[in-house]
Amino acid sequence: MTDTADARCHAGRRADLSGRMAEAQVARDYERRGCRLLENRWRGKGGEIDLIFGQGELIVFVEVKKARSTDAAINSLHPAQMRRIHAAAAEYLASAPRGQLSDVRFDLATLDATGRVEIIENAFGHF
User: Fold this and answer.
1) Is the distance from CB of 51 to CB of 40 less than 8 angstroms?
2) Higher pLDDT, 3 or 70
3) Residues 120, 110: contact at Cβ < 8 Å?
4) Whole-number Å distance between alpha carbons of 83 and 126
5) Are strands 104-111 and 36-44 parallel, antiparallel or unpaired?
6) What CA–CA distance (Å, rounded) separates 42 from 103?
7) Model-level pTM greater than 0.90?
8) What confidence tier does 9 reach under pLDDT thresholds 50, 70, 90?
9) Residue 46: CB atoms within 10 Å
């Protein structure tokens, strides 16, 4: 492996571990709020959803973004990614008891450089 390829591989592993740690921290925050984790990094044909929670009858789809600031994290979520998350959520709901009639919410959870979690409920329910 070349030095450049090795560096890319290490950077990719660091990013993956950092993302997993951010997701775990966000999951703990949701669980403190009384939500139960249904899925972590759920992958369908339409894409991946970072976290899926149940809150009573509500299904909450969560995109986790980690950045130096909350604003930077918010700005890193683009419409194309929102569409992919919606497509994956529709696929996930196909196996839910109420299917597409399920009550759902799409949240954005941000984690800044200080480790502060901010949850924006229904951040991209409609766009």
Assistant:
1) yes
2) 70
3) yes
4) 10
5) unpaired
6) 18
7) no
8) low
9) 16
Are 61 and 84 in contact by the 8 Å Cβ rule? The answer is: no
Residue-wise pLDDT for 49-108, tens only, equals 999 999 999 999 999 999 999 999 999 999 999 999 999 999 999 999 999 999 999 999
3-class secondary structure, 108: strand
Confidence of residue 46 (pLDDT cuts 50, 70, 90): confident
For residue 42, the SS3 value is strand
Task: List Cβ neighbours of 92 (8 Å cut-off, separation of 6 or more).
Answer: 39, 42, 44, 49, 52, 59, 61
- 48 by DSSP, 3-state: which? strand
Nearest to 115 by CA among 49, 82, 78, 69: 69
The distance between the two most distant Cα atoms of the chain, rounded to a whole number of Å, is 51
| Mean pLDDT confidence for 11-17 | 70
Structure tokens at 113: 């450089």
Domains in the chain (CATH in brackets) are 3-120 (3.40.1350.10)
CA distance 45 to 81: 14
